[in-house]
Amino acid sequence: MRSVWEGLTPELMAMIVKGIETDEVARVVPFVCTGWRDAVSGPDCWGNIELEQWCRRVDRPHVIDFAISCLVFRSQGNLRRLSAFRIGDFAFSFLSNFAKCLTVLKIPMSEVTDENVKTHAKCFAALKFLDISYCLSITSKGIEEFGRHCKLLEQLRRTLPPPGFEGRSSSEVDDSEALAIANSMPGLRQLELAYGRCCDIGLHAIVSNCSALTNLDILGCLNVMMQGDLKDKCHKIRTFRDPWDDDGYFYQSSDDGNNSDGAATDSSLDD
């Protein structure tokens, strides 16, 4: 009996599974029929790997690294988006071998180190969106390496733990990450630095050097005092969220004609 899926190209099959969670594509789809098993064995279904929710459920770094490595290998260099959680140096190193087309990388709370970023950042030259929130083993040195090699980078998420997390003090000041962003990522359009440690010096460098910024979120950056002309510079940015905005309100400049909800998104990179 002829399968309903017979005759579909691998490209069409990849489009069909695009909205299905990656772990289900790996675990369930191959058992639908021979055609789907063959399709999932090839690279076309692995251009977009969304594993963050699965990683959170598993929450075992060595299992996560192994699974990501297996799926990334299937992409055979066609990988464009990867969303994961708590990956380690092994998965990051392995990923670098298949990252030539990668434009979106989301790896919050991962254990990737500065040294690993320094070694492999050059392989991520196509990146446009990077999320390294809560990646506490990446410091200003790693951020600078990303900026030095990822010249197409437009969106950066770098949310840090709020005060009280693992003994972190609200008075701790460190402008090194903000200065690394300002000096190495001048093309950024959207930047999220919630609960960052910078003060006016680091923020002033960002708004001065990153002239393309349209969205800036510094919620919880309580060392920022907005002195001098810094407040005016920030409020010229189309969508700006200040350190004390605890009710979800975003300041939006009056000349903004788009993005009415003020939220920074990566929707432009979805396709």
From TrEMBL:
Residues 251-271 have a biased composition (Polar residues). Transmembrane segments: none annotated. This is F-box protein FBW2. InterPro entries: LRR_dom_sf. It comes from the Eukaryota. The gene is FBW2. Residues 250-271 are annotated as: Disordered. It comes from Acorus calamus (Sweet flag). PANTHER family: F-BOX DOMAIN CONTAINING PROTEIN, EXPRESSED, F-BOX DOMAIN-CONTAINING PROTEIN.
